[in-house]
Specification:
506 residues; disordered C terminus; Toprim domain-containing protein; 6-stranded antiparallel sheet; 26% helix; 5-stranded antiparallel sheet
């Protein structure tokens, strides 16, 4: 958190933060994301239910206020809603600021009240979730090997999702289940190649969460002989890519599904708690090698330290590039503060690039740290010196406060899937002569025109050979039929040693 003093020392500072929380948080969206169900909606109010609560939002007011029909003392503005559910005042402030900053994935743009007549279909009911029979998005678009999909951690763990209106199952979305603690799928996150918006013509990323239970996480099969490493990252695709490049026997994989916020952190810790007591267990973060991925590292390490360290509690505040972190010490441990401050300074004090100044301030009961995380101007990849400094900083914090080993591994590119695809780029060779009879599925064709269908690049991957031409994938939502006469060049697919192995069943 950005403050370095208590409420009594500067109450106006906290009043400003609380005013910011009450004024900027999307109250309605927060309730939907945390599992509340909308019961009623009118011009000036909305009523939600969850377990024993009946929360009524007075949406006609600015800022929005609320009251709980089942608890006359539970009322006020959004910060009162947080405070009534969090005993620690400073933690409630931190949660409110996190909710403002977090890029939550909205399941629906507008909340709708269930209709009394008939039954509306949920988003999840619009898809058939079936065992994976078409991995083309992962193998062709993402470069994942069949052996990886069939490996012990992921066998039977990933599915296809076909929309009910998709006659014949032509669009094979990939579905990663979000499991509860007992291993039951409670939600799914769907991936497929980008699509072109029919109204704007813009290319848009396809990612879809099927219901409001977004805080559950995708995880791999538990290792048969017990976990040795808990590897966590942003997406299931990142986990697959890392496993193919750097995976080891005994790895348990967990995905945060593209964003990190309080409810996900709480579930993550609940999920790994039974494993943390295992002798020699190691935590390995593989978040993306960009500014956002490094911020996620800070959030996860903060959660782990707050949950596992004795006598220490961390509050952090990430405001755009600037990070402020307060490490509060219990009275019994304050004698260690000066030593810890020196250890952090010696490890990372001079490692940060100029302009991203790393500062430490020692108070009577806490250690305050400040630094910046800025992206490179020419790429989304974080500056290498900055990335190295952050790894050293968080690794040092882990060594000081965590009872288990913790490690950060970053990809060379933006993420581990970029690294995997880069390792497989040299896969085609130009044939000496153009012989259409020699074209095979998996080969690359180059068109005579300068561009392909829908303005895509003029290079496509052959999927099927037909009488008058080939069906080819140009990286678009649909494959296209290309007549033989339109092909200018043919490149033979170079098989790797792994691809020469018989294709495994998923």
């Amino acid at each position: 958190m950005k403050n370095t003093i208590s409420y009594k020392e500067d109450p106006e500072h906290y009043k400003r933060l609380i005013g910011k929380i009450n004024g900027e948080v999307d109250f309605e969206g927060h309730l939907l994301r945390t599992g509340h169900v909308l019961l009623k909606k009118s011009a000036g109010s909305m009523e939600f239910a969850k377990e024993g609560d009946r929360i009524v939002l007075m949406t006609s007011r600015d800022p929005i206020s609320y009251f709980n029909r089942n608890d006359s003392e539970d009322k006020g503005l959004f910060f009162s809603f947080l405070r009534n559910r969090e005993k620690n005042f400073y933690r409630a402030v931190e949660q409110g600021l996190e909710i403002i900053d977090s890029a939550h994935e909205h399941v629906a743009q507008n909340a709708k009240v269930p209709q009394k007549r008939g039954r509306t279909r949920s988003l999840e009911e619009n898809y058939n979730i079936v065992p994976m029979r078409n991995p083309i998005y992962l193998t062709k678009e993402r470069g994942i090997a069949m052996e990886t999909l069939a490996s012990d951690p992921f066998r039977g763990r990933i599915f296809n999702a076909f929309h009910h209106n998709d006659n014949g199952g032509k669009i094979a979305n990939v579905a990663f289940p979000k499991f509860d603690i007992g291993g039951t799928p409670r939600n799914y996150i769907l991936y497929n190649r980008p699509y072109r918006d029919r109204h704007t013509g813009e290319s848009k990323k396809f990612r879809l969460v099927l219901n409001g239970k977004d805080h559950f996480l995708f995880s791999s099969n538990p290792p048969k002989e017990g976990a040795q490493r808990i590897v966590f990252g942003e997406s299931g695709v990142d986990l697959l890519s890392f496993h193919e490049l750097e995976g080891k026997k005994g790895d348990l994989y967990i995905s945060f599904g593209g964003n990190v916020y309080t409810e996900k952190l709480d579930f993550f810790y609940e999920l790994i708690t039974p494993i943390l007591s295992r002798k020699g267990i190691q935590l390995v973060s593989i978040f993306d090698n960009d500014a956002t991925g490094h911020r996620f590292d800070i959030q996860v390490f903060t959660k782990l330290i707050n949950a596992m360290a004795k006598g220490v509690y961390i509050e952090n505040r990430i405001n755009r590039e600037r990070v402020s972190m307060n490490i509060h010490y219990h009275m019994d441990r304050r004698g260690q503060m000066a030593h810890d401050a020196r250890t952090i300074e010696d490890s990372v004090g001079n490692a940060f690039p100029k302009g991203q100044g790393f500062k430490t301030l020692l108070f009577s009961d806490k250690l305050a740290l400040e630094f910046s995380i800025s992206e490179s101007r020419s790429t989304t990849i974080l500056d290498p010196q900055m990335a190295k400094a952050l790894r050293a900083f968080l690794t040092t914090l882990g060594g000081l406060y965590l009872p288990v080993r913790a490690k950060i591994m970053k990809s060379m590119g933006k993420d581990w899937n970029d690294d995997l695809k880069s390792s497989k780029k040299e896969r085609y060779e130009q044939l000496g002569t153009m012989d259409l009879d020699r074209i095979r599925p998996g080969d690359k064709i180059v068109l005579k025109t300068n561009s392909g269908p829908e303005g895509a690049p003029n290079e496509g991957i052959v999927e099927e050979i037909r009488t008058t031409g080939v069906l080819a994938d140009f990286g678009l939502r649909y494959s296209y039929m290309v007549p033989f006469r339109a092909i200018a060049a043919h490149l033979r697919h170079k098989k790797t040693s792994k691809e020469n192995i018989a294709q495994l069943k998923i």
